[in-house]
Amino acid sequence: MPKAKTKAQKAVMFDRVAFIGIGHIGSSMALAMRRAGVVESIIACDRSAKHRKAALKLKIVDEVTADYAKAVKGADLVVIATPVGTNAAIAKAIAPHLKPGTIVTDVGSVKQVVIAAITPHIPKGVYFVPGHPLAGTEHSGPEAGLADLFDGRWAVLTPLPRTPAKVLAKVSTLWKRMGANVDTMTPAHHDRVLAITSHLPHLCAFTVVGTATDLAEDLKQEVIKYSASGFRDFTRVAASDPVMWRDIFLANREAVLEILQRFTEDLAGMQKHIRRGDGAALEKMFTRTRAIRRGIIEAKQA
Amino acid sequence: MPKAKTKAQKAVMFDRVAFIGIGHIGSSMALAMRRAGVVESIIACDRSAKHRKAALKLKIVDEVTADYAKAVKGADLVVIATPVGTNAAIAKAIAPHLKPGTIVTDVGSVKQVVIAAITPHIPKGVYFVPGHPLAGTEHSGPEAGLADLFDGRWAVLTPLPRTPAKVLAKVSTLWKRMGANVDTMTPAHHDRVLAITSHLPHLCAFTVVGTATDLAEDLKQEVIKYSASGFRDFTRVAASDPVMWRDIFLANREAVLEILQRFTEDLAGMQKHIRRGDGAALEKMFTRTRAIRRGIIEAKQA
User: Fold this and answer.
1) CA distances to A222, B48, B65, B86, B113 from B141, in Å
2) In a domain, A150, yes or no
3) Rounded-to-integer distance, Cα B47 and Cα B54, Å
4) How many domains does chain A have?
5) Which of B204, B256, B301 sits opposite A227 (nearest CB)?
6) CA-CA to A126 of 20 to 30 Å: which in A153, A302, B171, B270?
7) Residue B201 and residue A286: Cβ atoms within 8 Å?
């Protein structure tokens, strides 16, 4: 039998939440907030008329608008959930319309660049808490919104030195009520961790699928036909939103180039083992990677 | 209401099937054969006492042995389902004990090298039909056997010029009754297609996870913790059997090195775009890869 909910678990946390961008992550957050009963009303601002229409039709939000000022007016929480390249312009556009005490947060996959883009525009008395939920599918748009997307996944917060403890605690509680586990780290550390856990794998997947795209037409048709085992998983990853990923690689350039350098060296090592027919070296390499997988299974992130 | 089975659909095709190797693929085939009712009795030969014990306990096979001669004696179908590096020695060991009319097939992920290893040992009157089911998980051993592993997946046969049409047709029917779609192609073409659809993605995954393995311990713990989205899929691929993959890369060296060369050039191109901050080029690359994914979805292999 489920335990009776405590008052804190049921409590509404925000009267009005404004989403800037109501794509896959924004709509999933809106649904998770509703599921948790943390919000009274939700408005979404999106440049795409198709997104606005879908978000309204699917009852993900109560209102939609294409106007930044209208969206954030009266909101006590603003969630920026657009490709990170847009963040500076958005922060500038919404800034004059934010009321004192409002919390602004984001979901960007890189944090240092996002903080540099948003922070200068945040008015006095408004709090910016940078965040990044480590969840998502390869799908885009409000139709891909899932209320349980964050259940059991990590949401990483990278608070600024001046973020008040109680504001950080509030955003942390919000994520927990949306189903996530919450951790905090510095923006620089976040960007390094994500370069290896997310950006490098995506770059490999985009590149492998790109290499296949250049194959002769007859071979390409067979690559599609026989994609089971390996390639298929890569195409799923490589089907992710191109604009979002363009912005991530531009925004996390330093960390990505550093890890890419290591990867390229390691790949050259593999290539050498294959060319030389060094089976012992290959087996050693393939065996040690199993330990990482076991770690992930033990950490219940498999 | 399901249609009544025709006689052909119910018919036993083989009196006695011998598996050389009863790991993930061998045990899945044994289970699929039983499900389809194509075989009277199954014996498995495996070097691993653990595998033999599990295959018997899980009722995947009727008998087990560590002796090649005993395994293939009286068998009218022999399935070699071991890492490809073992195939020459196995073919040599079983050859004297094969009765005329027996069909030998295999499941190796490369075909040219396997054919070169097995064919010289096949006695007159015995038929070798090289095969490769494009299915599998990252798990190993008989405990990972799945009766429905091949349902809707492709089984590729690469018949030899001298393979009689009715023998090829029989192996083709066997795979269809195990749930697979069947296609035939030349061994060389198979090895090129698999280099891009399977071997290159696996090499990337092994390498990315290997690169992560070399990270400082504190960073590595966080890579495990925050593996959602991208990296986690790679670790699953990279958890595949090290000996099997060692043998694949050694056996398909030429095709793998050729596609690896293309990939390395493409990756260097991506790196240049990132370093230069060329967002338009990145977006273009990331957009075109979506077409391949759509092809896979349309081909119902997603």
Assistant:
1) 29, 10, 16, 17, 24
2) yes
3) 13
4) 2
5) B301
6) A153
7) no
Structure tokens at B48: 């691993």
Beta bridge partners of A20: A45, A80
Q: Is A7 within a domain?
A: no
* CA distance linking residue A114 with residue A244, whole number of Å: 13
For residue A74, give how far its alpha carbon lies from the nearest alpha carbon of chain B (Å): 34
For the record, the structure tokens of A211 come out as 């290499």
CA-nearest of B110, B252, B193, B293 to A222 is B193
Coil/strand/helix, residue B184 = strand
Q: Is the Cβ pair B210, A154 closer than 8 Å?
A: no
Q: Which residues of A touch B24 (CB under 8 A)?
A: none
pLDDT in tens, B93-116: 999 999 999 999 999 999 999 999
* Residue B195 DSSP code: I
A241 and A290 both lie in a single domain? yes
Nearest CA-CA partner of B240 in A283, A41, A255: A283
**If chain A, 302 residues long, is cut into consecutive pieces of 10 residues, what is the mean pLDDT of each piece?**
54 97 97 97 97 97 98 98 96 97 97 96 97 88 95 95 96 98 95 93 92 84 80 84 92 95 95 97 90 82 68
Spatial CA neighbour of A215 closest among A201, A199, A202, A226: A226
B209 and A242 within 8 Å at the Cβ level: the answer is: no
pTM (predicted TM-score): 0.83
- Å from B226 to nearest chain A CA? 7
In a domain, B4, yes or no: no
Whether B211 sits inside 8 A of A266 (CB atoms) is: yes
Contacting residues of B for A206, CB less than 8 Å apart: 270, 285-286, 289
A147 lies in the same domain as A119: yes
Best of B215, B234, B273, B276 to mutate (most A CBs within 10 Å, chain A): B234
Domain that holds residue B201: 189-298
d(CA B153, CA A158): 45
